[in-house]
Amino acid sequence: MSFEAPIDPIVATSLELSFVVPFFDERESLEILYGEVVENCEALGKSYEIIFVDDGSCDGGESVVRALMERDPNVSLIRFRRNFGKSAALSAGFGAARGQTVFSMDADLQDNPSEIGSFLGALSEGADVVSGWKQIRNDPIDKTLPSRLFNGAVNKAFGLKLNDHNCGFKAYRREALDELNLYGELHRFVPALLHSRGYKVAQIPVQHRARQFGKSKFGAKRLVKGALDLLTVWLNTRYGARPLHLFGGGGLALSSAGFSILAYLTVMWFAGYGIGDRPLLMLGMLLVLFGGQLITVGLLGELVLRRTIAENDKYSICERSGAAFRRELPVSILAGTPPKA
What we know:
Elements: H1 9-14, E1 17-23, H2 27-44, E2 48-54, H3 61-71, E3 75-80, H4 86-96, E4 101-104, H5 116-124, E5 129-134, H6 141-158, E6 170-173, H7 174-177, H8 190-196, E7 201-206, H9 220-239, H10 243-270, H11 279-307, E8 317-322, H12 331-334
Protein backbone atom coordinates (compact mmCIF):
# COMPACT_ATOMS: atom_id res chain seq x y z
CA MET A 1 0.00 0.00 0.00
CA SER A 2 1.44 3.37 -0.95
CA PHE A 3 1.36 6.09 1.67
CA GLU A 4 1.98 9.78 1.06
CA ALA A 5 2.01 12.37 3.82
CA PRO A 6 1.94 16.15 3.32
CA ILE A 7 5.10 18.24 3.18
CA ASP A 8 6.47 19.04 6.63
CA PRO A 9 5.06 22.52 7.50
CA ILE A 10 8.17 23.35 9.52
CA VAL A 11 10.37 22.87 6.47
CA ALA A 12 7.96 24.85 4.32
CA THR A 13 7.97 27.90 6.60
CA SER A 14 11.70 27.92 7.47
CA LEU A 15 12.87 27.94 3.86
CA GLU A 16 13.73 31.52 2.92
CA LEU A 17 14.11 31.70 -0.86
CA SER A 18 12.55 29.74 -3.72
CA PHE A 19 13.67 30.17 -7.32
CA VAL A 20 11.33 29.11 -10.12
CA VAL A 21 13.21 28.74 -13.40
CA PRO A 22 11.20 27.71 -16.49
CA PHE A 23 13.31 26.49 -19.40
CA PHE A 24 12.72 25.42 -22.97
CA ASP A 25 15.80 24.17 -24.86
CA GLU A 26 18.30 26.02 -22.64
CA ARG A 27 20.56 23.07 -21.78
CA GLU A 28 23.88 24.96 -21.96
CA SER A 29 22.90 27.63 -19.46
CA LEU A 30 21.25 25.58 -16.68
CA GLU A 31 24.33 24.54 -14.71
CA ILE A 32 25.88 28.01 -15.01
CA LEU A 33 22.69 29.63 -13.71
CA TYR A 34 22.50 27.14 -10.85
CA GLY A 35 26.06 27.95 -9.78
CA GLU A 36 25.40 31.70 -9.81
CA VAL A 37 22.19 31.41 -7.80
CA VAL A 38 23.79 29.17 -5.16
CA GLU A 39 26.85 31.42 -4.90
CA ASN A 40 24.73 34.51 -4.24
CA CYS A 41 22.40 32.75 -1.79
CA GLU A 42 25.35 31.50 0.22
CA ALA A 43 26.90 34.98 0.20
CA LEU A 44 23.64 36.37 1.62
CA GLY A 45 23.37 33.54 4.14
CA LYS A 46 19.91 32.52 2.86
CA SER A 47 18.45 29.05 2.67
CA TYR A 48 17.18 28.27 -0.82
CA GLU A 49 15.56 25.86 -3.23
CA ILE A 50 15.69 25.95 -7.02
CA ILE A 51 12.75 24.53 -8.98
CA PHE A 52 13.51 24.00 -12.66
CA VAL A 53 10.43 23.61 -14.87
CA ASP A 54 11.08 21.81 -18.16
CA ASP A 55 8.48 23.20 -20.56
CA GLY A 56 8.77 20.39 -23.11
CA SER A 57 12.47 20.76 -24.00
CA CYS A 58 13.96 18.58 -26.72
CA ASP A 59 17.66 19.19 -26.01
CA GLY A 60 18.01 16.97 -22.93
CA GLY A 61 18.04 19.80 -20.41
CA GLU A 62 16.32 17.63 -17.83
CA SER A 63 19.42 15.42 -17.64
CA VAL A 64 21.44 18.46 -16.55
CA VAL A 65 18.91 19.16 -13.79
CA ARG A 66 18.95 15.51 -12.69
CA ALA A 67 22.73 15.73 -12.29
CA LEU A 68 22.29 18.88 -10.20
CA MET A 69 19.70 17.11 -8.04
CA GLU A 70 22.19 14.35 -7.25
CA ARG A 71 24.68 16.94 -6.02
CA ASP A 72 22.27 19.32 -4.30
CA PRO A 73 19.07 18.21 -2.50
CA ASN A 74 17.76 21.77 -2.80
CA VAL A 75 17.19 21.34 -6.55
CA SER A 76 13.87 20.06 -7.90
CA LEU A 77 12.51 19.32 -11.37
CA ILE A 78 9.06 19.57 -12.93
CA ARG A 79 8.68 18.19 -16.45
CA PHE A 80 5.77 18.86 -18.78
CA ARG A 81 4.72 16.29 -21.36
CA ARG A 82 4.95 18.95 -24.05
CA ASN A 83 5.42 22.69 -24.39
CA PHE A 84 2.58 24.44 -22.54
CA GLY A 85 4.08 27.93 -22.33
CA LYS A 86 5.75 30.10 -19.74
CA SER A 87 2.57 30.93 -17.82
CA ALA A 88 1.85 27.24 -17.21
CA ALA A 89 5.49 26.64 -16.23
CA LEU A 90 5.44 29.49 -13.72
CA SER A 91 2.09 28.33 -12.34
CA ALA A 92 3.45 24.83 -11.73
CA GLY A 93 6.63 26.19 -10.15
CA PHE A 94 4.80 28.65 -7.92
CA GLY A 95 2.52 25.88 -6.75
CA ALA A 96 5.53 23.82 -5.65
CA ALA A 97 7.59 26.65 -4.13
CA ARG A 98 7.93 26.55 -0.33
CA GLY A 99 10.03 29.64 0.37
CA GLN A 100 8.89 32.75 2.17
CA THR A 101 10.10 34.76 -0.84
CA VAL A 102 9.73 33.39 -4.37
CA PHE A 103 11.82 34.50 -7.34
CA SER A 104 11.10 33.90 -11.00
CA MET A 105 14.05 33.91 -13.38
CA ASP A 106 14.64 33.17 -17.05
CA ALA A 107 17.04 30.34 -17.82
CA ASP A 108 18.92 32.11 -20.62
CA LEU A 109 21.48 33.78 -18.26
CA GLN A 110 20.27 37.28 -19.20
CA ASP A 111 19.08 37.74 -15.59
CA ASN A 112 21.97 38.30 -13.18
CA PRO A 113 21.58 36.51 -9.81
CA SER A 114 23.85 39.12 -8.20
CA GLU A 115 20.70 41.31 -8.05
CA ILE A 116 19.00 39.00 -5.52
CA GLY A 117 20.03 41.18 -2.59
CA SER A 118 18.52 44.27 -4.24
CA PHE A 119 15.19 42.50 -4.67
CA LEU A 120 15.19 41.46 -1.01
CA GLY A 121 15.96 45.03 -0.01
CA ALA A 122 12.93 46.33 -1.95
CA LEU A 123 10.71 43.70 -0.34
CA SER A 124 11.96 44.68 3.12
CA GLU A 125 10.85 48.25 2.40
CA GLY A 126 7.22 47.15 2.11
CA ALA A 127 6.74 45.95 -1.45
CA ASP A 128 4.79 42.75 -2.07
CA VAL A 129 6.05 42.28 -5.62
CA VAL A 130 9.31 43.57 -7.06
CA SER A 131 9.79 43.59 -10.83
CA GLY A 132 13.12 43.99 -12.55
CA TRP A 133 13.66 46.87 -14.97
CA LYS A 134 16.15 46.26 -17.77
CA GLN A 135 17.29 49.86 -18.21
CA ILE A 136 19.90 48.87 -20.77
CA ARG A 137 18.65 45.98 -22.89
CA ASN A 138 20.95 43.71 -24.87
CA ASP A 139 18.23 42.76 -27.33
CA PRO A 140 17.57 43.63 -31.00
CA ILE A 141 15.13 46.39 -31.89
CA ASP A 142 12.49 43.88 -33.03
CA LYS A 143 12.18 42.95 -29.34
CA THR A 144 12.72 46.30 -27.64
CA LEU A 145 10.28 48.37 -29.75
CA PRO A 146 7.26 46.04 -29.32
CA SER A 147 8.13 45.80 -25.62
CA ARG A 148 7.95 49.58 -25.22
CA LEU A 149 4.57 49.69 -26.94
CA PHE A 150 3.33 46.85 -24.77
CA ASN A 151 4.53 48.48 -21.54
CA GLY A 152 2.84 51.73 -22.47
CA ALA A 153 -0.46 50.01 -23.22
CA VAL A 154 -0.44 48.03 -19.96
CA ASN A 155 0.46 51.09 -17.88
CA LYS A 156 -2.37 53.08 -19.42
CA ALA A 157 -4.90 50.28 -18.99
CA PHE A 158 -4.13 49.57 -15.34
CA GLY A 159 -2.72 52.82 -13.98
CA LEU A 160 0.47 51.01 -12.96
CA LYS A 161 3.68 52.78 -13.96
CA LEU A 162 6.29 50.13 -14.62
CA ASN A 163 9.04 50.49 -17.18
CA ASP A 164 9.33 46.79 -17.91
CA HIS A 165 6.40 44.43 -17.39
CA ASN A 166 8.14 41.77 -19.51
CA CYS A 167 11.19 41.29 -17.31
CA GLY A 168 11.23 37.68 -16.12
CA PHE A 169 13.27 38.50 -13.02
CA LYS A 170 10.76 39.17 -10.23
CA ALA A 171 10.41 38.56 -6.50
CA TYR A 172 7.19 37.90 -4.61
CA ARG A 173 6.04 37.52 -1.07
CA ARG A 174 4.62 34.02 -0.63
CA GLU A 175 1.08 35.22 0.08
CA ALA A 176 0.87 37.26 -3.13
CA LEU A 177 1.28 34.17 -5.30
CA ASP A 178 -1.80 32.56 -3.76
CA GLU A 179 -3.87 35.16 -5.64
CA LEU A 180 -2.59 34.20 -9.11
CA ASN A 181 -4.17 32.01 -11.77
CA LEU A 182 -1.84 32.06 -14.77
CA TYR A 183 -2.62 30.75 -18.25
CA GLY A 184 -2.11 31.83 -21.86
CA GLU A 185 0.39 34.69 -21.87
CA LEU A 186 -0.70 36.12 -18.52
CA HIS A 187 2.79 35.82 -17.02
CA ARG A 188 3.50 39.19 -18.61
CA PHE A 189 0.69 40.77 -16.58
CA VAL A 190 1.59 39.46 -13.12
CA PRO A 191 2.36 42.91 -11.63
CA ALA A 192 -0.87 44.32 -13.10
CA LEU A 193 -2.91 41.36 -11.83
CA LEU A 194 -1.55 41.69 -8.30
CA HIS A 195 -1.79 45.50 -8.38
CA SER A 196 -5.49 45.17 -9.20
CA ARG A 197 -5.90 43.06 -6.04
CA GLY A 198 -4.27 45.69 -3.84
CA TYR A 199 -0.70 44.42 -3.56
CA LYS A 200 2.12 46.95 -3.54
CA VAL A 201 4.27 46.67 -6.67
CA ALA A 202 7.77 48.12 -6.95
CA GLN A 203 10.55 47.95 -9.53
CA ILE A 204 14.32 48.07 -9.39
CA PRO A 205 16.84 48.50 -12.22
CA VAL A 206 18.67 45.27 -13.05
CA GLN A 207 21.55 44.31 -15.27
CA HIS A 208 20.48 42.66 -18.52
CA ARG A 209 23.17 40.43 -19.94
CA ALA A 210 23.53 39.43 -23.56
CA ARG A 211 22.34 35.94 -24.47
CA GLN A 212 25.22 33.44 -24.46
CA PHE A 213 23.53 30.31 -25.78
CA GLY A 214 20.59 29.38 -27.97
CA LYS A 215 18.15 31.81 -29.50
CA SER A 216 15.24 33.90 -28.32
CA LYS A 217 11.76 32.36 -28.37
CA PHE A 218 10.21 35.77 -29.09
CA GLY A 219 8.14 35.95 -32.27
CA ALA A 220 5.49 38.03 -34.00
CA LYS A 221 2.80 35.57 -32.85
CA ARG A 222 3.46 36.62 -29.25
CA LEU A 223 2.41 40.18 -30.10
CA VAL A 224 -1.02 39.01 -31.18
CA LYS A 225 -1.35 36.81 -28.09
CA GLY A 226 -0.20 39.66 -25.89
CA ALA A 227 -2.79 42.06 -27.31
CA LEU A 228 -5.61 39.55 -26.79
CA ASP A 229 -4.43 38.72 -23.28
CA LEU A 230 -4.22 42.43 -22.45
CA LEU A 231 -7.91 42.72 -23.29
CA THR A 232 -8.63 39.60 -21.24
CA VAL A 233 -6.78 40.89 -18.17
CA TRP A 234 -8.34 44.35 -18.45
CA LEU A 235 -11.84 42.89 -18.59
CA ASN A 236 -11.17 40.39 -15.81
CA THR A 237 -9.64 42.89 -13.41
CA ARG A 238 -12.26 45.59 -14.00
CA TYR A 239 -15.40 43.60 -14.65
CA GLY A 240 -14.57 39.99 -13.76
CA ALA A 241 -16.65 40.15 -10.57
CA ARG A 242 -19.43 42.29 -12.09
CA PRO A 243 -20.12 41.34 -15.73
CA LEU A 244 -23.51 43.02 -15.59
CA HIS A 245 -21.77 46.39 -15.22
CA LEU A 246 -19.93 45.84 -18.50
CA PHE A 247 -22.69 44.34 -20.65
CA GLY A 248 -25.57 45.96 -18.81
CA GLY A 249 -24.05 49.43 -19.03
CA GLY A 250 -23.63 49.19 -22.79
CA GLY A 251 -27.04 47.57 -23.13
CA LEU A 252 -28.75 50.34 -21.19
CA ALA A 253 -27.04 53.01 -23.29
CA LEU A 254 -28.07 51.38 -26.57
CA SER A 255 -31.59 50.64 -25.38
CA SER A 256 -32.02 54.23 -24.16
CA ALA A 257 -30.91 55.55 -27.55
CA GLY A 258 -33.30 53.16 -29.29
CA PHE A 259 -36.25 54.11 -27.09
CA SER A 260 -35.48 57.79 -27.67
CA ILE A 261 -35.57 57.26 -31.43
CA LEU A 262 -38.81 55.30 -31.22
CA ALA A 263 -40.37 57.94 -28.95
CA TYR A 264 -39.45 60.63 -31.47
CA LEU A 265 -40.96 58.60 -34.33
CA THR A 266 -44.10 57.99 -32.26
CA VAL A 267 -44.58 61.74 -31.83
CA MET A 268 -44.04 62.17 -35.58
CA TRP A 269 -46.64 59.48 -36.29
CA PHE A 270 -49.24 61.16 -34.06
CA ALA A 271 -48.48 64.41 -35.87
CA GLY A 272 -49.52 62.77 -39.14
CA TYR A 273 -46.12 61.98 -40.64
CA GLY A 274 -45.45 58.59 -42.20
CA ILE A 275 -42.68 56.60 -40.47
CA GLY A 276 -43.09 53.11 -41.91
CA ASP A 277 -40.40 53.55 -44.59
CA ARG A 278 -37.93 55.57 -42.56
CA PRO A 279 -34.52 53.95 -41.84
CA LEU A 280 -34.60 55.59 -38.42
CA LEU A 281 -37.39 53.23 -37.40
CA MET A 282 -35.27 50.20 -38.16
CA LEU A 283 -32.30 51.71 -36.32
CA GLY A 284 -34.38 52.37 -33.21
CA MET A 285 -35.72 48.82 -33.17
CA LEU A 286 -32.26 47.31 -33.62
CA LEU A 287 -30.81 49.42 -30.81
CA VAL A 288 -33.56 48.34 -28.42
CA LEU A 289 -33.15 44.66 -29.35
CA PHE A 290 -29.36 44.69 -29.22
CA GLY A 291 -29.33 46.61 -25.94
CA GLY A 292 -31.74 44.11 -24.43
CA GLN A 293 -29.52 41.24 -25.55
CA LEU A 294 -26.47 42.82 -23.89
CA ILE A 295 -28.37 43.24 -20.63
CA THR A 296 -29.42 39.58 -20.83
CA VAL A 297 -25.81 38.50 -21.43
CA GLY A 298 -24.75 40.49 -18.36
CA LEU A 299 -27.41 38.83 -16.22
CA LEU A 300 -26.37 35.39 -17.45
CA GLY A 301 -22.75 36.27 -16.68
CA GLU A 302 -23.71 37.12 -13.11
CA LEU A 303 -25.50 33.78 -12.73
CA VAL A 304 -22.58 31.83 -14.18
CA LEU A 305 -20.09 33.71 -12.00
CA ARG A 306 -21.92 32.69 -8.85
CA ARG A 307 -21.71 29.02 -9.84
CA THR A 308 -18.24 28.94 -11.32
CA ILE A 309 -15.70 26.53 -9.93
CA ALA A 310 -12.01 27.26 -10.52
CA GLU A 311 -10.71 25.43 -13.58
CA ASN A 312 -7.96 22.86 -13.35
CA ASP A 313 -4.47 23.93 -14.40
CA LYS A 314 -4.09 23.76 -18.16
CA TYR A 315 -0.96 21.63 -18.29
CA SER A 316 0.00 18.00 -17.85
CA ILE A 317 2.99 16.99 -15.72
CA CYS A 318 4.74 13.68 -16.26
CA GLU A 319 7.22 13.95 -13.38
CA ARG A 320 7.77 15.71 -10.06
CA SER A 321 11.04 15.05 -8.29
CA GLY A 322 13.39 16.71 -5.83
CA ALA A 323 13.22 18.41 -2.47
CA ALA A 324 10.09 20.43 -3.26
CA PHE A 325 8.10 17.22 -3.52
CA ARG A 326 9.78 15.14 -0.82
CA ARG A 327 7.23 13.73 1.59
CA GLU A 328 7.72 13.02 5.28
CA LEU A 329 7.23 9.38 6.32
CA PRO A 330 4.30 8.62 8.62
CA VAL A 331 5.09 8.43 12.32
CA SER A 332 4.11 4.74 12.37
CA ILE A 333 6.77 3.96 9.76
CA LEU A 334 9.41 5.94 11.64
CA ALA A 335 8.55 3.91 14.73
CA GLY A 336 9.01 0.66 12.83
CA THR A 337 5.29 -0.18 12.61
CA PRO A 338 3.73 -0.41 9.14
CA PRO A 339 0.70 1.83 8.55
CA LYS A 340 -2.71 0.20 8.84
CA ALA A 341 -4.39 -0.57 5.55
